[in-house]
Amino acid sequence: MPLIAAATGATPSRRPVWFMRQAGRSLPEYREIRAGRGMLESCFEAELVAEITMQPVRRHDTDAAILFSDIVVPLRAAGIDLDIVAGTGPVIASPIRTAADVAGMPRLDPSSVGAVTSAIGMIIDELPDEKALIGFAGAPFTLASYLIEGGPSRTYERTKAMMLAEPDLWHSFMGRIADITIAFLRAQLDAGVDALQLFDSWAGALSKAQYDEYVAPHSARVMAEVAEYGVPRIHFGVGTGELLNSMTDVGVEVIGVDWRIPLDEAADRVGHRVAIQGNLDPTVLLAGDDAVLEREIDKVVAAGERAIAAGTPGHIFNLGHGVMPNTDAGAVTRAVELIHAL
Amino acid sequence: MPLIAAATGATPSRRPVWFMRQAGRSLPEYREIRAGRGMLESCFEAELVAEITMQPVRRHDTDAAILFSDIVVPLRAAGIDLDIVAGTGPVIASPIRTAADVAGMPRLDPSSVGAVTSAIGMIIDELPDEKALIGFAGAPFTLASYLIEGGPSRTYERTKAMMLAEPDLWHSFMGRIADITIAFLRAQLDAGVDALQLFDSWAGALSKAQYDEYVAPHSARVMAEVAEYGVPRIHFGVGTGELLNSMTDVGVEVIGVDWRIPLDEAADRVGHRVAIQGNLDPTVLLAGDDAVLEREIDKVVAAGERAIAAGTPGHIFNLGHGVMPNTDAGAVTRAVELIHAL
């Protein structure tokens, strides 16, 4: 598998590429199959999950499928009352803010994500041998931010207030979330995913000092608890230029990079210890101009090659964040062709 | 004036401190005076502007007043149909996206911001001699993002699409916005402000390469066109760790830093060429814990002192972004006391 080769310092048979949120609204076939079905319920229907996961692989010939799911799926499966509201994001019915709330946090029984593990079996049956299936979960900090704020936030003010003013409560809470994340990842690994990505999407809201003290120990425990499976572990967040080293230190094989930092510079920052993934600005796919697409892809590929020449074990092409919903599917297909042709 | 001393490499008589958005919802007297009045209309009532500008200086004893206004005020004054919607932000009636839209961009007649310049006169009359009045404007990129997207955005997708796919149109548009920004700043400088801050709040959404090519030339022109006034020029954006050098290169005396980067590291990055401003995480004021407040202020002050010891001309204490609306005013007063006592 080219993706696994690039992640582990081997030589891939072709330049591996996949896109965060490649399964989603940019695809007409996705919009059709999702019509009239809620996001969260869709994540608990095994056949639908498998079908949606496969759609972008069939259409774009990406080198990996990423499980169609959402970072709040294991929280819902554990029994937390929440929904994913179109146009808003996750909304938590009763935000978790007190010691009693934290003490009442449920645990994840792997059988409650049976739809996800069944879907993984179906995907593996269909997926060509050379393509990897990537499992994923939300990292404790990003999940904590939703659970504490009650939904998406621009400021993370209650989250940081708990972190700073009630560190014992914070660490206990993060530990409980990490338990759920670990159980969810292990269920996916037991079902056979080839790699995993831990999304700490909003970690970039933190300073390095905050990340190291309040977040890193919990993400490190997640990574340690899945290490025995021996699959590549990818770690990604947005706006994490200051955190790349810390996010590598938690124990990963691949560090994801957003578009703000050239890949070779990011690779230098982490001392070429791990493979890199990224980092085309997702808006480039929206610009509607083939020459721009080609030029910007060239830049990312060239930076990846400079990183490898300097000692980085490999480069997995991706965006710097997810495919935006109103991206034209044709532009995504074209991007994959260009990347594979280079 | 301690603020001007710190900005210009002299020795301030005390450690200067002010807070972005110090005039605003955190103050009971602000909520009272704004009751029943829209944000935008308030910015065009000279006496109200002067009163609101003075409120935090009286209550907290900060070393500077910052003009109560909004970055879209000069756009509205120039004739662009927009409003500031509570809980949302600026909303533009007819977003600017085509060559015809750009050609139709109005210019700013300084007389249309007469309320602002009158307010400045009133503030100067009341402000104690040792306190600075800071004028401000939005930088062309951040204003462009509102005008193109039609309001606040998390992705800046249309903005970046124009930038990437229609660079000539983009530069022409940015030039027209820069004209308005320059006219607005010159009006404030003519009225007597002691310093100015250019807010490129959302520049952190860009890579350094994007910033350097599409944004820096226009911000540099703004800075050059106000240089003759000889007042300190402060430049600030959120999440700009990768951009600090570029944002300094446009021609400033002070670089503002958000909370993601320790001040001494930020100062190193810009080669100690300019004074630094920042960078307490605004959520620290919300944590509701005096010991945390003191500890975090100590860290910022210590980093500022290390920067100065390494050659940086000065440090102006501030937050890493604005005061959040539900901050307790007492915590802000306490912060100023702590900073002045250190």
UniProtKB/TrEMBL annotation, chains A, B:
PROSITE patterns: UROD_1, UROD_2. HAMAP family: URO_D. This is Uroporphyrinogen decarboxylase. GO terms for cellular component: cytosol. Pfam families: URO-D. Substrate binds at residues 21-25, 70, 146, 201, 321. Keywords: Cytoplasm, Decarboxylase, Lyase, Porphyrin biosynthesis. It is found in: Cytoplasm. It comes from the Bacteria. It catalyses: uroporphyrinogen III + 4 H(+) = coproporphyrinogen III + 4 CO2. InterPro entries: UROD/MetE-like_sf, Uroporphyrinogen_deCO2ase_HemE, Uroporphyrinogen_deCOase. Residues 16-25, 134-150 form the Uroporphyrinogen decarboxylase (URO-D) domain. The record marks 70 as: Transition state stabilizer. Its EC number is 4.1.1.37. Homodimer. Pathway: Porphyrin-containing compound metabolism; protoporphyrin-IX biosynthesis; coproporphyrinogen-III from 5-aminolevulinate: step 4/4. The lineage of its organism: Bacteria, Bacillati, Actinomycetota, Actinomycetes, Mycobacteriales. Its main location: cytoplasm. One of its GO terms (biological process) is protoporphyrinogen IX biosynthetic process. Belongs to the uroporphyrinogen decarboxylase family. Catalyzes the decarboxylation of four acetate groups of uroporphyrinogen-III to yield coproporphyrinogen-III. One of its GO terms (molecular function) is uroporphyrinogen decarboxylase activity. Gene3D superfamilies: 3.20.20.210.
